[in-house]
Structures are given as structure tokens and as C-alpha cells.
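Predict the 3D structure for this chain.
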Amino acid sequence: MAASFPKTVVRNSAKLIRRLILNAEIPWEKQRSRMNIAMASARPPKTVSVTSHEIAGVLVERVEPVAGKSKGTVVHIHGGGFTVGSPASCRMWAAAVSATLHLTVEVPDYSLAPEHPFPEGLDQVSAVLDQVINEHGAERVVVSGDSAGANLAISALQRRVLAQLAMPAGLIMLSPWLDISDDRLSDPGLVRRDPLLTPTWLEACANAYAPGRATDPEVSPLYGSMDGLPPILIQGGTDDILAPDANRFVAGMEPGHVSLSLANGLWHDFVLQVGMLAAADQAMEITTAFLAEQLALH
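Done. Predicted structure below.
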């Protein structure tokens, strides 16, 4: 998959999104509508179909191969700071996964804060994941998420561990936001390098999602137990303001249980820009290799 744009062009686009969309001075509804407009131009390949249906009472976008039987299911939780975003924001990533490996990707359109604060979004994600695993079998399912979606994904799995339920075959976390209590101003150099996110916006999102509960393990899963989780792949960039969360997570895990891939000089959620950025296409190769191994597709 050839990249369409130079890295500098895509980085400048991220800066524009930060200024016009992911901006704490802009009302949530306007951020959401502008994000939807920005994502509207995404055109998945004709080898996959994009439809909507309900799982466990939650609207879910399904990306699946047009021809042939699906070989497995990925439940992907979109990011957006718990406050903005929709399945459209990760549609091209989901399409690349589906087209490359002949998988079905289910993306819940969960309720957003501040209108629907914690635990509503997490409850919905957990319900969708539970039903998908019940229908397809844990060994045929991988759960993934980007940014705040990675938070919801691992929190849902931590719930399953506590309930002694079967784990999916794997977990993928893209630019994960795992500690909403962390002071992002503590590393000014990193703040300057990330063209997409700001500490101010992240703080506004955290306050909208779970006011007064930032260190609750279900809100910031870095405070929860990491026991019992499936094999994990984490992908991100060294210029991501949330990269410290990935490093802290890996430091607390058993060696060999988690694989960390941080691309040098790349920013938050760059991996979603499949087809636009060469580094994202390279990251997709790592993603699909992990999925193929965990779902035994070889």
C-alpha cells in the first residue's frame, strides 16, 4: 500500500486538527461535527463492505470482506478522548485489517462524555465484547483500541479477568491513554513534539469523562491488575504525548507477554493513517502479523 503524502504534510494536517477540532476552547458538539466532516472523505477498498447493526443494544459499524467467509473477528474501540470520535475515525485502519487478513472488524459507536460519563461507554464496550466472544469463541476474537479506545479495551478485559471469563486471543493498543491522572506538562519537550494532542485538551476530556475518579482502576487501567491478560501488541510514536503510558505499561508486565513498537518521530495515532503515511503502512504490517499469529491464520 503506497503512501500518498509526505510525512511533513500529514504532520501539518495533525496540527490543523489540533487547532480546529481537538481544542478545549471549542464545544464538544462542534468538535464532533468537525471531526465527522474531516473523516467523511475516507473511502475503504471495494474488497470490504461497511455496514451498521446492533450488538448488545449498541450501534456497531461492521467492516468485513465482500467475498468469502471471515476468518475471525476484531473488536476495535475508537479513540477521541472519551468525548469525540466515531467508527469513521478508524475506518481505513479497520478496512486494511479486514482486507489483508479476511477478518470482520466490529467498531462500537459507544456513548460519549460529558453527556454519558464513566462508566456508560465502558459498560457498552464490555457488553459488545461479551456478546461477540459468546457468539464466535474467545480464540477467534482479538480486541483492539486506539487512544482512549485502548483504555476502554483493556478495562473491558480487566473486567473479564475479575469475572473469570475467557480472554480473547490477543489485545492491540494503539497510542493508548492508560492514565488520565498523569501530568502531561511534566515533559515540555514531548508536549512540543506532538502535533495532535495538548495537555489542556486531555485534561478537559478527563474531567468530562470521570470527574474526581482519575485514579480509579477502571478509569486509568495502569492502576489496575495486569494479571490474566492475553498477548499484547502496543504501537505508537516517540512524539506521542501519551507514549509514557505505553512505556509504563510495558515496564509493569512480564517479559515476553507484550510487544512494544514505537516509531521514531511519529505522533499520536499515526497508525490509523493507513494509505496516507508510509510509517502507518509499515505499522499495519506489524499489526497484521500479530493478528495472524494470535488467530492462527498461518
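The chain has one domain: 7-294.
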